[in-house]
Amino acid sequence: MWPFLINYWKETLILLLFAIIFVLWYRDHASLVRAMEITDRSHQEEMLVIQDSLRREIEEKNILTQKYIQNIEKIKSDFEDTKRELDSLKLGRKEQIIADRTENPKEVAKLIEDAFGFTYVE
Description:
- It is a single chain.
- This protein is mostly helical.
- The longest helix has 95 residues.
């Protein structure tokens, strides 16, 4: 066997180098596979956290939307109540002015002049 190795030492050295490179590459490949598995696991965990965060955001958005709708309904209701009150006050004031006009037209004319800047002409 020694005479063979002595005669073909270059080929033997090349074969030995290929074997060493293959072993080193295989070890490196295995570590790359492990690193990829760890990275994949980490990615999956991050995706779960992001999905959970998105779910919570959607729930909070829905809650805020419901509160917004309730506030809008309350504002509409308050507006309608206030509008009815104002219409009632306006109707009462209108009836009072009509009653005053028949009883005391000069006082009504003076109110109109003061309010709108008109000059009353008889």
